[in-house]
Amino acid sequence: MKNYINGTWSDSTTGRTFANLNPANSSDVIGMFPLSSADDVAAAVAAASAAFRAWRLMPAPKRGDILRKAGDIFTRRKDELAAIMTREMGKTLQETKGDIQEAIDTAYYAATETRRLFGYTAPSEMDNKMNMSFRMPIGVCGIITAWNFPIAVPSWKILPALAAGNTVVFKPSDDSPHSANIFAEILEEAGLPKGVFNVVHGQAEAGSALVEHPDVKVIGFTGSTATGNAIAARCGALNKKVSLEMGGKNAQIVMPDADMDLALTGVLWGAFGTTGQRCTATSRLILHTDIHDAFVEELKRQATAIVLGNGLTNSAAQVGPVINQRQLDKVLSYIDIGKSEATCVLGGERDTTGDNANGYFVKPTIFVDVERTDRIFQEEIFGPVLSVVRATSFEHALELANDSAYGLSSSIYTRDVNAAFTAIRDIEAGITYINAPTIGAEAHMPFGGVKGTGNGHREGGWTVFDIFTEWKTVYVDFSGKLQRAQIDNY
């Protein structure tokens, strides 16, 4: 496997590689990928900088035509790409097909938005003068993403960036590099000119070089809070625009008047879908004391029936593995912490039975008697671990939900419209679901969070273009004389 720079597949100048392993079967080596250096990044940035000169001048709707073709190709290759993604990051085929569908939706949406990159006109305070504003492309965008959505999340950044007239250097996660190469193949087939989109594989060295490069004008990042904060600090020092999508510790509230069957299916999907490896995963369940005990018993019963397995070889599998040995160790260490803080009523261990013996499988785990000061209540685990806490009132439930350093997603199950709208107003999160789990974002709506989750930007929908464009204000004075603004003309 190779890097993709200026329309050419090439090895790293380092000659070094890293192995991409199947997390459901660690003996399955998917391929060896370049362990790239700052020199490789510099070559990709040079190609993107050169391509930017012509790409920014292509009429935006014509750029949209290319993105629309990309959506068609993603559709045609959906099953093939889903199998590649399941093999390299572990989600079931149903989930990886959904991952690709988000890219398809985003491609079509971004293509449409190339006819809607609206500016504003406004009346001037002076005679015979017109005031206008335009969205302008920024230049080379550095994109760094995580492994858990190896097509969807990159598409949220890459496709709008291209639509706006920017060029891209993409450093994918070293845990899901193959998907990035397919992304490049699809954009190339769609007709994207050479150099407009580039892929550089690697680890921290490549990511750091991309952040540091002076010709990279904006960084779009999805990943851990620690890494995101470090990137933000460097971008601040470099006066470089940066968009951060980081961690979450999302809460689902269930009130006594809720549809309990609906709330149960919601938390099962929110907590254990994608093996809990979503920034929007339901990691805290806040149950009103009146329904707490009965809800927990039924939750345990249904969670026990969840089938773990390799999504490519086990058609019954509902939940796959965690991504790698490092993450397995992290999740198991948090489970040990949880056992010292609260009561584990389900799971709490690795699954090494049958065909799962060579994979990084963790049984769905539920803790009760959790306190708001516990680490498993406060810290992001990124695995199939659910912390259940008891609320004595609606107000207490909101207080518990907001007791977090993060603020990405949230959920409440209730039939009380007043409670629902109060939750919408008072929960400190970028996303709130009513009678639905904390996961399930749609491509045409803003996505992002508050507090430790991000730095104020929103991907998805129309808001993503605020990340990948700059505003230019234009004044046209046709009075034929000097008109002095910003002095006292009154």
Number of domains: 2
Number of distinct beta strands: 21
State the fourth-level CATH superfamily of the largest domain.
Aldehyde Dehydrogenase, Chain A, domain 1
Beta content comes to: 15-25%
Q: Give the end-to-end Cα distance, rounded to a whole number of Å.
A: 69 Å
Mean pLDDT: 97
User: Strand pairing plus helix content: what structural class?
Assistant: alpha/beta
Can you give the helix content as a percent range? 25-40%
The CATH class of the largest domain turns out to be: Alpha Beta
How is the main sheet built?
A: 7 strands, mixed
> Given the structure, what is the number of helices?
14
**What is the CATH topology classification name of the largest domain?**
Aldehyde Dehydrogenase, Chain A, domain 1
